[in-house]
Amino acid sequence: MTLEEAVKNITELDEGAMKECQKRWDSIAKPLHSLGKLEDFLVKIAGMTGTSHIDLSKKALVEMCADNGVVEEGVTQTGQEITALVTENFSKMQSTASVMCHKLGADLIPVDIGVAVDTSAWNRKVAYGTKNMTKGPAMTREEAVKALEVGINLVGELKEKGYRILATGEMGIGNTTTSSAMAAVFLDVPAEQVTGKGAGLSSEGLLRKIDAIKRAIERNRPDKNDAVDVLSKVGGLDLAGITGMFLGGAFYKIPIVIDGFISAVAALTAKRICKESVLYMIPSHISKEPAGSLILDELGLEAPLHCDMCLGEGTGAAVLFPILDLADTVYNTMSTFQDIKMEEYKPLS
Predict the structure, then answer these.
(1) Catalytic residue among 20, 313, 343, 344
(2) For residue 157, what pLDDT band results from cuts at 50, 70 and 90?
(3) Is 170 among the residues known to form the active site?
């Protein structure tokens, strides 16, 4: 599936399925809309999937893993080699995200879309990392499109394997720098406003990071009205893969859960490529990164969790899985007013 074909065939949510889902919620023996966003999420999922028969039992967290050339500028606390190390750890139950997924009954799928060395993760490598964006474009437009299509087609592949909901995660040393650069361009705000310390930078390191972002934007002059241009010039392969997943979710009609800041920047990129794609996204939490809430506001989405998380790896998205499971269980198993011969609640005027 090409990027152009996917974007051209993304449609609005199924209103009929959403009405049927809401009807089922309203028939359940409890006060109307008393589960709030838990009900809203399932109604939206019905619209995404085109059916009020909701099954979220098979789920996965997809980790897009890639290296970023901008680490040459001293914008990270650790070296580039950590990307490959953590990518391998995803499969060995030695990462935070993998431990969480094991407990939650979700599969974790590490994808090597651009790690600087070969790994044992799912091989979808577009390049061995990106170039240093302070010296020129991070990647070519062709590489960015190829990475977007990796994400799109991966969603189709996983849907065929029976997955009903996917969450987005990432591993890429330097990717809070690329994400902050993209956020600064899309939001048209100074780099200082959207840049944080990431994985533990010092105050001096934060200044280097902001300076690198400013130099990259100045040198490359990305066009904020062309999301692929922004992605290719100051983004990363991990971000491109996640962006593709959001577009793929909209095309293949499967819900995609947004993680934190990095994932949300990818979600905004997808929305800038195709505005309808945001209809198929589910926010999880508000990242502690400075621009976390700004990006969600730009997406027009409200995250239900406020956990002060900023780890990445899809950990925030994973935390939403059991909440959705609880909503799904109530929706599918609880008695209706008719079952227990009780008068239904009526909407208050």
Answers:
(1) 313
(2) very high
(3) no
